[in-house]
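Researcher: I'd like a structural prediction for the single chain below. Treat it as a standalone chain; there are no partners to consider.
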Amino acid sequence: MKKADIYEFYARLAEDIPEPRTELNYTNSYTLLVAVALSAQATDVGVNKATKALFEQVTTPQEMLDLGEAALKEHIKTVGLFNTKAKNVILAAQRLVDNHDGEVPSDRDALEALPGVGRKTANVVLNEAFGIPTIAVDTHIFRVSNRTGLAPGKTPLAVEKKLEKATPEDFKQHAHHWLILHGRYLCKARTPECWRCSVTDFCRYKPKTSEPRGKRKTA
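Model: Treating it as a single chain, here is the predicted structure.
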């Protein structure tokens, strides 16, 4: 995709959603970290349901330790891989208390050193909590980047590096959320909704999908 086209691509996404945000519910940087860690191989909707009562009780690493692993499992048992995630959340809380005075660090290496926190989770926290223009490549961003030709790559890291290089400075802060939301609601895995996409003329995906007959408006 040409540089001018990439700029217009993002400009249209920005026009569609001027202030994009994560769809995970959280109250501070710590609850954001927990929510993002829980969201691996789970939906944001499912995580939000599981953390609603949890985050009314727990907002700091020490409160998470006081809650304990068994009680945490009861809160998040509807989330995939909840046993492993609960163990990691407790271990990460202990690490935050011991090494960071109970605060979430704004450093990628320090975040990735926490149990259960990978590069994607760290990037989301850095972007959403600290305003650092990172791009966390999930399945949606990976699909959109490859399907459209915006930043094709064979691995999430390769796509991330290409997006960092290709994304204009004007759009780097929100690029992560625009691409996720575009993939979640328009550029879907099975059947992208090309007929209502604002950037379809820049996209190399073929053939473009048409609006289903049953959804077309009659005159």
